[in-house]
Amino acid sequence: MRLRDVDAWVFDLDNTLYPTGSTIYDVIGARMTDYIARVAGVDAETALDLRETYFQRYGATLSGLILHHGVDGRDFLDYVHDVDLSIVDPDPELAALIARLEGPRLIFTNGARSYAERITARMGLDGLFHDLFDIEAAGFVPKPQRGAFEALIARHRIDPARAVMFEDSARNLETAHALGFKTVLIDPEWTPGETLEEHIHHATDCIKAFLRSL
Ligand SMILES: [Mg+2]
């Protein structure tokens, strides 16, 4: 991938900009399960099933909760993202690598903007992004649904043919690829030489190593 071919840089947040395996995402997941148990009036095991089912079916648990349980999206996002971020470390090297990318840099997350603000501030990435485009900005349509990408593209007048998307979710990259984005999969298990699925242009086990190589 050549830098001069890219006008816009789109980053997923969770498990992309901060390392996969971070326990933060587990904490958020546990809060989702709690929330579902409360609003659906079910036990923790059933709540976990619903969480997984809605995630698989719609791309984000929240979308199923809105559709089937009349949940207020903002209320859910505020609750699940109310987590202690002190276990995430500042990452000055990542900040420097992102800062040198020319053109709009965007975060595109199925989470909440306020959470994206807090976590980027914690990591020292604040001020580097043109927008933190969250699930609410997408009208609560999540990745990998096409509508979420179309909302981002329209809002920021992105030409997908000149944009790249970084993601830890291969499923989300399928839509990105179909719309014309260049795609980069962040996968800590990936090893050089491994065959990539057709919709994945590049893969890396470390986003910093990839950005360094540009
Ligand atoms: Mg992610």
The neighbouring-strand order within the major sheet is 3-2-1-4-5-6
Helical residue percent band: 40-55%
Order of helical and strand elements: EHHHHHEHEHEHEEH
**Low-pLDDT runs:** none
Number of helices: 9
Whole-number count of domains = 2
Mean pLDDT comes to 95
Radius of gyration: 17 Å
Structural class: alpha/beta
Per DSSP, what share of the residues sits in E-state strands of 2 or more residues? 5-15%
Concise account of the structure shown:
The chain has about 210 residues and is α/β, with parallel strands linked by helices.
Structure description:
The protein is α/β, with parallel strands linked by helices. It folds into two domains: 143 residues, Rossmann fold; 57 residues, Orthogonal Bundle (DNA polymerase, domain 1), CATH 1.10.150.450. Helix content is 44%, strand content 11%. The chain contains nine helices and six strands; from the N terminus they run E-H-H-H-H-H-E-H-E-H-E-H-E-E-H. The chain has a six-stranded parallel beta sheet, sandwiched between helices. Helix 6 links the parallel strand 2 and strand 3. The longest helix is centred in the N-terminal third of the chain and has 17 residues. 36% of the residues are buried. It binds magnesium ion. The site of magnesium ion (MG) has 6 residues, from loops. Magnesium ion binds next to loops.
